[in-house]
Specification:
alpha+beta; seven-stranded mixed sheet; disordered N terminus
Length: about 625
């Protein structure tokens, strides 16, 4: 409080040394509207934002004209006090109101004079709930009393986080209604066209499933939302109760506009194929722009006012369109025209903010007009692409028809040639069939002769086989087979076990325990199990080979040598020949000799002559 009082005293003292400036604006009942720009208003910039209304009112010398002031000269850190003195005519049928055009101003503190000499304080701005406005209109209006007349002085304190366009319009109620209805009517046409174009492209996407139409729909909707944020329509109709969101909604809408513009642009131009280097740059810029948006949204919303950075992605996609057009892609010409118009709109808007061009209805709504023209040109680009595809399809269809005609002619020619060829081949086949019949007859006769020869050969083979068996049997009986010759007869244990099985049960199976003659397969190979007592008899049971500890084919050969009295091998020679221990051979030979020396067929032993004779048979 002490600091504020000291500042107030300083302001009053300072104001006494400044010359007083009087600026009175006369209203006339015949002139329904007067627009007062900031360079015609008395303004005091409170850089510390500490001055009170009482201090400002007592110090009229604080106010001065700013003829060179432009909207971009606005300092967001300061509070601006505006003094407006009106000479209001005597009461008549007209009622007046004050209006601020810039609907993005955060805080407007208005002090309206009353008949008793006091001031009525009114607070409005887009940082407050929309429903708190005196008029449910996108701009800020203050209705003047119908009893006002003579000279009246109004004070306004304006503060905004971004630059503010401080222009005050003084107009009659009739003029306000006429202007507001006309403006909202134009807004309805503009946003209606956006909705129609969006629905049209959405229907095309649902029909042909080309994702570029979906991207274009998102882009058009983003343009609409951004334009509504700029106009204040979004705050009025979409989120009137969310003033905090309204502070950053324009930044989010602008990011969405740029994002979908780049996505649609690179998809429509097919930069991945037609300009791969530019495609990589576009993707990189898109990633950086998205990261910048996330940073600004989460950490510093004030950076949303840096709108000039959008010139980078827009310029890049504009250059990509020119590059692809030069490379021969004809639909890109409308794309280039669309972005050229968009750049023109941004340029006019920037010149208007810099006060380089005068404020006119056409210049104020130039961005909307350029948005509309851009959408139309982009629609033409998509239509031109479809037209080119249709022309290519028609040409391809025409070529297909011509090719079909040529194919039909060629087919008739080929069919004629094939018929002639078939006729010739049929004649040749008939001749060959006759030749085949003759050949078959000869082959039948030859087959009969071959069968006769085969029968004779079979008889000779049978005789030869019998002769071989007789020779082998004679050699066995003569006891003069070597180990190699013997191994050809009994090459492995299976042949030995199979021979024992056939010889042992040649007369039928009979259980050695109970005499039963029915059996089943035993647990081991070649064994038989009695179906009555369950005795499992191996093939070597009750033979000289039972429970031997070395290969049975070697036991067969030892039995053969033992029976062959003419072949005299020492135990050492047999041990080296059969790779068996000397004692093993000696024990097995004793076992064989004991059978020879014992009673005949003792324990149903197998005699050697029967053994080999039966095998050869």
């Amino acid at each position: 409080m002490f600091t504020a009082r000291v500042l107030g005293i300083f302001i009053i003292f300072f104001s006494l040394s400044m010359p007083s400036v009087a600026q009175v604006i006369h209203l006339h009942s015949k002139v329904a509207e007067k627009i007062i720009p900031i360079n015609e208003l008395l303004v005091f910039e409170d850089s510390l934002d500490r001055a009170t209304f009482a201090e400002v009112r007592r110090s009229p010398r604080l106010f001065s004209l700013m003829p060179g002031f432009k909207p971009n000269d606005y300092n967001p850190e300061s509070a601006y006090w505006v003094k407006l003195t009106l000479h209001i005519p005597q009461p008549d049928d007209h009622q007046w109101l004050l209006e601020f055009y810039d609907q993005t101003i955060d805080h407007i503190e208005a002090y309206v004079p009353q008949d008793d000499g006091t001031y009525k304080r009114m607070v409005m701005g887009d940082m407050y709930n929309f429903n708190q406005k005196p008029f449910k209109h996108k701009n800020f209006e203050i209705l003047l009393s119908s009893e006002f007349s003579g000279v009246r002085t109004f004070y306004f304190k304006i503060k905004s986080h971004s630059y503010a366009d401080i222009r005050i319009a003084v107009r009659t109620i009739d003029r306000f209604v006429h202007y507001a209805l006309k403006e909202y009517f134009l807004y309805g046409i503009f946003y209606g066209m956006i909705v129609i174009i969006s629905l049209y492209n959405l229907l095309i996407f649902s029909a042909i499933r080309e994702v570029k139409y979906l991207y274009y729909t998102f882009y058009i909707l983003s343009v609409g939302v951004y334009a509504m944020c700029v106009d204040g329509i979004a705050y009025q109709f979409l989120w009137p109760g969310w003033p905090k969101w309204n502070q950053i909604a324009h930044g989010t809408a602008l990011f969405s506009l740029i994002f979908w513009a780049m996505i649609f642009g690179q998809r429509f131009l097919n930069t991945r194929v037609r300009a791969p280097r530019l495609h990589k740059i576009i993707v990189g810029v898109l990633i950086l722009r998205s990261a910048w948006y996330v940073h600004v949204l989460l950490f510093d919303n004030r950076l949303f006012e840096w709108r000039n950075i959008e010139i980078i992605p827009l310029s890049l996609i504009f250059y990509a369109g020119i590059d692809v057009w030069i490379r021969g892609y004809k639909p890109a010409r409308f794309f280039v025209m669309a972005y050229g118009v968009l750049f023109l709109g941004f340029l006019i808007k920037a010149l208007l903010n810099l006060s380089v061009i005068p404020f006119l209805i056409l210049s104020y709504y130039s961005l909307h007009i350029c948005f509309l023209l851009e959408m139309l040109f982009l629609t033409f680009a998509l239509s031109d692409r479809v037209r080119i595809l249709k022309d290519n399809r028609d040409r391809a269809l025409k070529r297909i028809i011509i090719q079909h005609q040529e194919n039909a002619t060629l087919k008739d020619k080929v069919n004629k040639e094939l018929e002639d060829l078939v006729t010739r081949r049929t004649k040749q086949l008939q001749e060959k069939n006759l030749l085949l019949e003759e050949t078959n007859q000869k082959m039948l006769e030859q087959a009969k002769e071959i069968n006769k020869i085969n029968s004779m050969l079979d008889l000779d083979n049978w005789k030869l086989k019998n002769n071989i068996k007789e020779i082998l049997q004679d050699r066995l009986v003569n006891k003069n087979l070597t180990l190699e010759q013997f191994e050809k007869i009994f090459p492995d244990p299976i042949s030995c076990y199979r021979f024992l099985e056939r010889l042992k049960w040649a007369g039928g199976y009979e259980c050695s325990k109970c005499g039963n003659n029915k059996h089943s397969t035993g647990h081991t190979k070649f064994s038989r199990r009695c179906s009555k007592c369950g005795y499992d008899e191996s093939v070597t049971s009750n033979t000289v080979f039972h429970r031997i500890k070395f290969p049975i084919e070697k036991a067969f050969y030892i039995l053969y040598l033992t029976n062959n009295r003419h072949n005299h091998f020492t135990l050492d020679e047999l041990s080296e020949m059969l790779d068996l221990r000397r004692n093993t051979i000696w024990t097995f030979k004793k076992k064989i000799e004991s059978l020879y020396d014992g009673p005949e067929n003792n324990h149903k032993s197998i005699l050697i002559n029967d053994l080999f004779s039966a095998h050869l048979a």
